[in-house]
Amino acid sequence: MTGTWRRRWLAVDLGDRRVGLALSDPLGMIASPAGHLERRAGKRPPLTALLAKAAELGAEGFVVGLPLDQNGDDTPRAMEARRLALELQTRSGHPAELVDERFTTASALRAIRDMEGSTRGRKGDVDAMAAAVMLRIALDRFARAEAMGVVVERGADV
Q1: Which of 11, 54, 64, 76 has the most CB atoms in a 10 Å sphere around its CB?
Q2: What are the start-end ranges of the E strands in 30-149?
Q3: What is the rounded CA–CA span in Å between residue 63 and residue 37?
Q4: How many other CB atoms sit within 10 Å of the CB of residue 5?
Q5: Domains and CATH numbers, the chain
């Protein structure tokens, strides 16, 4: 992925009720929470709303959380995340990368508590922070790959 990763990325943390969002700066170096979208339980991911939000924020790529089980194997929700990443990439023409999202919510909760904040009634904030944690992981991996001269295929798991 040499050079092509330096862009504004929108991270998507797909949940049952909310979709947490995070955005990178235009150089793809800083990850910041960017709110969340509501999702109706049992319904498809809000693809149209995600594409609209990406356009509004000037995103040029997507990082989609891949919910794996403890052994690193796909879960039924992982298949949904893979389909979403493919749809985002196909419809937007921008790259979509998959990132293992295990432990991102726990990290987000810890970060909010470390800032002496309460998570009570702030589930959307927690989801956005989890997306930011996931995006930070992806950006770090992109930078390491570039430093090593590794070219990552578009749409590959990060």
Answers
A1: 11
A2: 31-38, 61-66, 96-100
A3: 16
A4: 22
A5: 9-147 (3.30.420.140)
Distance set, CA 57 to CA 50, 51, 96, 133 (Å): 10, 10, 16, 19
Distances in Å between the alpha carbon of 75 and those of 40, 71, 129?
Answer: 20, 10, 22
pLDDT average per 10 residues of sequence, the chain (158 residues): 74 92 93 93 89 97 92 89 96 94 62 58 74 92 83 49
Which residues are bridge partners to 65 per DSSP? Answer: 99
